[in-house]
Amino acid sequence: MTDPAPESVTVQRDIPFQEVDGETLTLDLYDSPAASGPKPVAVLVRGGAFAFGDKGEFARHALDLAADGFLVVEPQYRLAPEWTFPAALVDVKAAIEWVRAEGESYAADTDRIVGVGHSAGANLVVLAALTADEPGFEPELYPGASSRLSAAVGYAGVYDFRALDAEMGEGQRFHRQYLGGGPDDEPAAYDLASPVAQADTDAPPTLLLHGTEDETVPPSQSELLADALGPMTDVAHESVSADHGFPFHGAHYDDVYERTVEFLRGAVAGPDAADAVDDTGVPGGDLPDPTDRIGDPGPAGGRGLDRSDGPGF
Questions:
Q1: 236-249 burial, b if ≥16 CB within 10 A, otherwise e?
Q2: Considering just the CA atoms, what is the radius of gyration of the chain in Å?
Q3: Strands (DSSP E) along 2-52, which ranges?
Q4: 3-class SS at 240?
Q5: What are phi and psi of 259, to 5 degrees?
Q6: By Cβ atoms counted within 10 A, which residue in 1, 12, 33, 35 is the most buried?
Q7: Please, which residues have CB within 8 angstroms of residue 231's CB and are 6 or more apart in sequence?
Q8: What whole-number distance in Å separates Cα of residue 59 and Cα of residue 74?
Q9: First and final CA of the chain: distance in angstroms?
Q10: Which of 12, 25, 4, 43 is closest to 105 using CA atoms?
Q11: Is the per-residue pLDDT at 153 higher than 60?
Q12: Nearest to 209 by CA among 93, 300, 96, 125
């Protein structure tokens, strides 16, 4: 189904991209026909403690990124406790590989795919970037297609499960459903699912944003990953004076979005970017200025939906 969206962005919903044990997973695709191709692609992965929710949480970001010249994909992924690690990771990689297999029909530039995730979704995006094309974590549906990302953005992500357990005590334990148990029961899953433990020199440029008042996922999680990735790749670690749900707060949305799109512009601009400058003076001349995003202002003057209570990790 294709839905009209504001300012000529179109949304194609429920496109099948992965089938496992009789379960069909779908994705939503956001596109602006007015944008020239080939278009860089952004894969957006929501949070939900690996156990809750569905695609659609990133709808505002998807609409804005599409208006800014990206082809945007927001996929479903399998949820705990029915499905444990690495099921959700494999599904995110399947969405990336679907773009490479099918993207040309949507004017996608399959050499320029980036990932953006929040909370549990940040874990999945960053881990997908760090384990690109590793056989144990790859879907079977798209043989020969790469799961490589050109860049990763993590909002309030979970990056070290052992450290999370140590800091949160008996508090936040939803992730144990996803990992199949505690660290004594599933030590390999704790390490393999933690981006801090998987950091290596193949890591793409990475932007980490975390709320200073986050009581769901402590800001130290982003600090740990920034320290691990710092010697290996370009990593930007920045703070937002907000709680866990800051990417969806009307008060913070514009600031977070502009930081994100500036980073992504640099990541997808390519080796000739220095000579490709649009009329706004921003490298990557095929992407519109982020201040021209669509959508009515949300609460407190921002464009995003107000999620002051946060959606959970």
A1: ebebbebbbbbbbb
A2: 18
A3: 2-4, 10-20, 23-31, 39-45
A4: strand
A5: -60, -40
A6: 35
A7: none
A8: 8
A9: 30
A10: 12
A11: yes
A12: 125
Dist CA 46 CA 77 (whole Å): 9
Query: What is the amino acid identity at position 48?
Result: G
pLDDT tens per residue across span 32-75: 988 887 999 999 999 999 999 999 999 999 999 999 999 999 99
Residues 63, 295: contact at Cβ < 8 Å? yes
Walk me through the domains of the chain, giving residue ranges and CATH numbers.
8-266 (3.40.50.1820)
User: Can you state the angle between helices 220-229 and 161-168, rounded to 10 degrees?
Assistant: 150
3-state secondary structure of 191: helix
Contact 299, 292 (CB under 8 A): no
CB neighbour list of residue 140: distance below 8 Å, 6 or more residues apart: none
Residue with the bigger pLDDT between 293 and 161: it is 161
> Tokens 């949070």 appear where?
47
pTM for this one? 0.87
Could you identify the residue written with the tokens 């140590």? 166
Q: Which tokens go with 228?
A: 């691990």
Full strand arrangement of the beta sheet holding 2-4: 2-4, 10-20, 23-31, 71-75, 39-45, 108-118, 151-155, 206-211, 235-240
pLDDT in tens, 111-150: 999 999 999 999 999 999 999 999 999 999 999 999 999 9
Strand (E) or helix (H) holding 129: helix 120-130
pLDDT at 169 (0 to 100): 75
Tell me the three state secondary structure of residue 42. Answer: strand
The yes-or-no verdict on residue 155 having pLDDT over 80 is: yes
